[in-house]
């Protein structure tokens, strides 16, 4: 995936501001040709920079209001990949390979604590799973966000430029 430029970021910010806007309206607002906008959106989608719309759906709206995180330790023979059985559990909405004591960190959703117990049982039943540890999210302190990063790219701020750095000691 190549890096986004300022125009790519401005396009995505405009869509974020008005997801129902037509391509023509967005192109006019951004001061670019409609074909330019369409081509860039197709490229961003093809490169995986723009993900599927379903990622915006809140699982709570589907009846899955409980969120938990499960740390998973796998047997040595499979520590570099997640077993296919975990990919088949629909309540696992994110899976990350991690460093530290666990090999994977799963974000799971459930209808209630009893449903979470069932989902956790499915995870533990996977033969390659050695150990798990589950924590329940009490509430979402900050939802996933990318808008500040998009804004920085749209403004032409290079990555890391806004971070505080100590000047070198002389």
How would you portray this structure in words?
This protein is α+β, with helices and mostly antiparallel strands and 170 residues long. It has 2 domains: 6-54, Winged helix-like DNA-binding domain superfamily/Winged helix DNA-binding domain (Arc Repressor Mutant, subunit A); 59-136, Lrp/AsnC effector binding domain/regulation of amino acid metabolism (RAM) domain (Alpha-Beta Plaits, 2-Layer Sandwich), CATH 3.30.70.920. Helix content is 34%, strand content 18%. It contains 6 helices and 4 strands. α2 (23-30) crosses α3 (34-46). The radius of gyration is 21 Å and the shape is elongated.
* Shape field: elongated
Individual helix count: 6
β-sheet strand percentage: 15-25%
* Sheet with most strands: 4 strands, antiparallel
CATH architecture annotation name of the largest domain: 2-Layer Sandwich
Order of helices and strands: HHHEHEEHEH
**Number of separate domains:** 2
Strand order of the largest sheet: 2-3-1-4
Radius of gyration: 21 Å
What structural class do you assign from the helix and strand content?
Answer: alpha+beta
What's the CATH first level of the largest domain? Alpha Beta
Indicate the CATH topology of the largest domain: Alpha-Beta Plaits
Let me know the CATH homologous superfamily of the largest domain: Lrp/AsnC effector binding domain/regulation of amino acid metabolism (RAM) domain
Gap between N and C termini, in Å?
A: 40 Å
Number of strands: 4
């Amino acid at each position: 995936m190549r890096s986004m430029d300022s125009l790519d970021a401005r396009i995505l910010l405009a869509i974020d501001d008005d997801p129902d806007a037509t391509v023509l309206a967005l192109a006019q607002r951004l001061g670019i040709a409609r074909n330019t906008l369409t081509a860039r959106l197709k490229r961003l989608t093809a490169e995986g920079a723009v993900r599927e719309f379903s990622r915006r759906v809140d699982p709570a709206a589907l009846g899955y209001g409980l969120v938990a995180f499960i740390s998973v330790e796998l047997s040595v023979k499979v520590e570099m990949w997640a077993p296919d059985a975990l990919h088949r559990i629909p309540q696992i909405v994110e899976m990350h390979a991690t460093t530290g004591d666990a090999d994977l960190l799963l974000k799971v959703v459930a209808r209630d604590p009893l449903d979470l117990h069932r989902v956790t049982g499915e995870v533990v039943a996977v033969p390659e799973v050695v150990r798990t540890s589950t924590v329940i999210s009490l509430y979402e302190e900050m939802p996933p966000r990318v808008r500040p990063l998009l804004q920085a790219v749209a403004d032409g701020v290079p990555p890391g430029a806004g971070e505080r750095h100590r000047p070198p000691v002389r």
